[in-house]
Design brief:
about 160 residues; alpha+beta; OB fold (Dihydrolipoamide Acetyltransferase, E2P); Gyrase A, domain 2; five-stranded antiparallel beta sheet; five-stranded mixed beta sheet; 10 strands; about 20% helix; elongated; DUF5812
Length: about 160
């Protein structure tokens, strides 16, 4: 009987001889006893198993897929559609919509004076933002903004 776990993980920390994976579905953190070549901000579809006998560290049994994730702030303004979504959303709220194909668009409507802070919050909450990207199966997060509108685009 093995306690193998198959999931999608975000690589949150690496050293030459270890790595830390966070399960993007349940938030559980797994410290690896070795690093099979992973890098911070990788999303990994993998199977991990606890190391005997203490079972406090894990090893990667299999990596089904690995992709690098990125967050970037674009100079482009939100799209017309994103601005329309914002207009229908109360200030301080969030609208979510699936993208055509893969991914999602999240439109935040901060007070105009707080737009820069809202963008910074998304970028600074890197682990949560990239965990969401990993769950959605995308590689790239693009942030566009104009006063009162922040679009967070989760894209392949």
């Amino acid at each position: 009987m093995t306690d193998e776990k198959e999931s999608t993980f975000l690589v949150t920390h690496v050293e030459s001889d270890s790595a830390v994976l966070k399960d993007v579905h349940d938030g559980q953190v797994h410290t690896l006893s070795s690093n099979p070549g992973l890098a911070v901000d990788d999303a990994v579809e993998a199977t991990v198993a606890p190391d005997p006998p203490m079972e406090v560290t894990y090893q990667v049994v299999e990596v089904a897929e690995r992709r690098s994730l990125s967050i970037e702030e674009s100079d482009e303004p939100p799209t017309v559609h994103e601005r329309e979504l914002a207009a229908e959303t109360a200030t301080g709220d969030l609208a979510r919509e699936e993208r055509a194909g893969v991914g999602e668009v999240h439109v935040l409507t901060p007070p105009e004076a707080d737009t820069t802070d809202a963008v910074a919050d998304v970028i600074d909450d890197r682990e949560a933002t990239l965990s969401r990207a990993a769950r959605l199966g995308v590689n790239r997060v693009e942030i566009r903004s104009e006063p009162g509108v922040v679009s967070v685009r989760y894209m392949p």
